[in-house]
Amino acid sequence: MHKGVIDIPWGYLFTGYFLMLIPLLIFRYYRTGLERSTLWSLLRMTVQLLLVGLYLEYIFRWDNKWLNLLWVLIMTVVASYTVIKRTGLRLQKFFFTVLAATVLSIVLIDYYFLGFVIGLKNILTARYFIPITGMLLGNSLKNVIIALDAYYKRIDEEEVSYRWQLADGATHSEALLPFMRHALRRAFNPLIATTAVMGLISLPGMMTGQILGGSDPMVAVKYQIMILVVIFASTSLNVWLTIIFSNRIAFDPFLNLRKDIFDPGNSGKKIKRARG
Amino acid sequence: MIHVQDLKVDFGSHSLFGGLSFHVKAGEKVAVKGESGSGKSTLLHTLLGFVPQFEGHIEIDGLALNPSNIHEIRRRTSWVPQDLRFTVFPTVREMFYAPFRFKNNRHLMPRPEEMKRIFHAFEISEDLLDRQIKEISGGQKQRLILAAAVLLRKPVLLLDEPTSALNVEIKNKITDYLLGLEGITLLAATHDEYFISKADRIINL
Fold this sequence. Notes:
The complex is a heterodimer of chains A (276) and B (205). Chain A is mainly alpha-helical and 276 residues long. Chain A has 10 helices and no strands. Chain A is 73% helix and 0% strand. Chain B has 7 helices and 9 strands. The model of chain B has no long low-confidence stretch (mean pLDDT 92). The A-B interface holds A 154, 158, 160-171, 174, 178-179, 182, 252-256 and B 45, 48-50, 52, 67, 70-71, 74-75, 77-79, 81, 83-89, 98-99, 101-105, 145, 148-149, 152, 154, 158.
């Protein structure tokens, strides 16, 4: 087996971008209007990852716990910002809620996984702490967006069902239960489906990366299994905490859904407003 | 039982009720009548705390309508809304039994003979409970929600156009049943002439 990864020369890296002509031509042909945002996302991804590459080289070299914590905090702030922008909720109202839920879920899961399962003496070791936390954040981001969006959109659209339960004596959490159930189903059905076929129709990125990097396949598989478990746990904790925390700011003292939680100027994934 | 004093609801561009006052005695059956847009539904919503920007004083069963009393008030009410989409409940059974599963209402879970009696009176087939919400008609849904409200036996029953989706024969039969409920205070926003003619009293908006 080949040990150590073959580097991609810079010139060849850019020839790889020709593959993006496939989605761009399809989007153009069907006049989807997605070309600009695709190119923009591609540019952002490239610049961000190159910067991360540069940063990580130094961060790994210095391996300072405060610097590592700061880096993860920046990642968490950006993740929280992205979540809110994509759900069409007001940034000012939800930012600290989403941030608190994300930080709490990351701290708990990182502590257990890195400190107990991997057995690191210092869980803030850059080589483990940063990539693992990044993977947790990246994976939970999508699910938190889907869950928050589904939750508030459904309460707004089905306000009568929500109010009917309150008017018949439900506690706040009882009246919200069908909406929580709906949000969890929407957010987790795809993750459950992906987890179930892992290894059959897809080889996960981390495992592939480790194998390419020269790791023993079984070591890579063990890490991947644990990573999938950890992603599932942290995502569910993050989704649940985000919704629970946001309930405290999204309703008025009579438990009516506040209409000013929706941001009419947010160009993200819009929450369609039902009648007021 | 329901006391309203100088009620006014301001929506910015327009306001409703203009200082409305009324009192509904315990056990009384009152119809709220008015043109479309006069605020019949809004009145019921306000009584239930769904329109928090109201002015004036509202009391239900001796409790002033405010955030600290709202849950206690809602423990004593049952509401039948006009809009009955309810698609958040996947099955009819889940929708029907939802209010009986609340901590406050568990002791009110209907016995099979009570269910049979009310289903018979409202001409509801028990098979409906096994259907998906989207498979039943508006009239069937309205009868089910009315049946659940009656079985909850709350002291205050607030009904928003309770017979709007029903045909004439069953509409009058259900109206008679609702207006005959003893010991329950009923306030219904309605256009229905039969309901209005049979109510103890009418509030004109």
